[in-house]
Give the backbone structure.
Amino acid sequence: MRRAPGRSFRWGPLIVACVSVSLSAQAAELDWRKLGDQTAELLADVLRIDTTNPPGSETAAANAFARRLAAEGIAAEVIESAPGRGNLYARLPGRGSGRPVILLSHLDVVPADARTWRMAPFAGTREGSFVYGRGALDCKGIGAVELMTMVAVKRSGEPLDRDLILLATADEETGGKAGAGWLVQHRPDVVANGEYCINEGDHIHVLADGRKVVQVGVGEKTPFWVKLVARGDAGHGSTPPSQTAVTRLIRALNKIRRYRTPIHLVRPVETYFAALAPLEKEPLRTRLAHLAVSLDDPIFLAEFARNPRQNALIRNTITPTVLEGSPKTNVIPAEASAHLDCRLLPGEKPSDFLDQLRDVVGDDSISIETLLSFPASSSDADSGLVAAIRRMAAQELGGAPVVPSVTPGFTDSHYLREHGVASYGFVPFVLSEDEEKTVHGTNERVSIENLRSGVRRLVSVLRALPAEPPR
Ligand SMILES: [Zn+2]
């Protein structure tokens, strides 16, 4: 049932401070420094819990988050999709004049090779003004900031218009089937009726000249992973027939290698580069502002596509990765296979792309099996949430421009989008290129300044989010 819209004054938490509180029922003064320090402590604690996926074993980390919330009087639930695969869920009630906002992060991390690190990757080391550890940025640092954002709202004594939902899930790094994917299927109540989701995906960038750009991921390319399988007679390597499974596979892969996927400028990508254009000097400024026209110029196109990230944003890509054939030099295998990591632009239909791929291979004896596929999706770049991020940027970041972006990689956001929740990649951290490189790399770290400001920025976004008009 929907609660009655509109503001209601809550006496309890405000009564102590009511001498100084204005009649507009403003939030109690928050100690941002303390919140930041507590965020760093919480992060160091969860970085000490090894959640390398596989196997993940995220329950201990979910429990650590739940204990921190319990200490603030916020009830949390740890939901296991399988033994040890814990997902954290908490909900802070709002005034009911808007659909809920979800803060999403994940608890699992990619492996870390300790030999290449300066410090132990699972020690939660605090050194200088940074917290180090696998997951500091991807994604426990984000989870800690989102959790302390919920704590900050609770401590302020001023509820949000909407319910605030916190989700820290398992299994993102291997596709989310035991995490966000499992939750939307088996516990849809945790995301039910959500209007917006804030997730990893993009962040606040610093340009070479020091200017900041707030990038908000509105779309992602989608993975379409396939396996090519060629078959033939098995035999001895000393007496080869004219065609074998391996030679058929090589022929198919060579056709794929020569094939250039067509240029396709989708709307969210066009909008993204147009929004970046004013930050560039001429003639690039005009070129980016009118990218559809610019890409018709073969010289500009060649230059633009030389950057692998830019190239990935204007076409579907096909990358051969896994190869399998015979395990023995003198044995001709009956089967040889290759995995292709294909990435499709928002709006592309996987079935159309599969037809194209079959045409390119042009060999009916080669089967193409789908390993992973879901529809490509994107969220509205002009939504109330993006407007709230603009307001935050005006207040907290000196009016830094907000650019709706499309990213070549993918996150759990698609599970939420498929469930009708507009999902945005927005990490409230200002990251240099050096810091970005530590994600999935060595000496992963986050600055304490980012943890502190991150909580403040997220609270600012949530407060700026307009309530839904009563229906
Ligand atoms: Zn991540």
Observations:
- Residues 106, 138-139, 172, 200 surround zinc ion (CB under 6 Å).
- The two ends are 13 Å apart (CA to CA).
- The first strand starts at residue 76 and ends at 80.
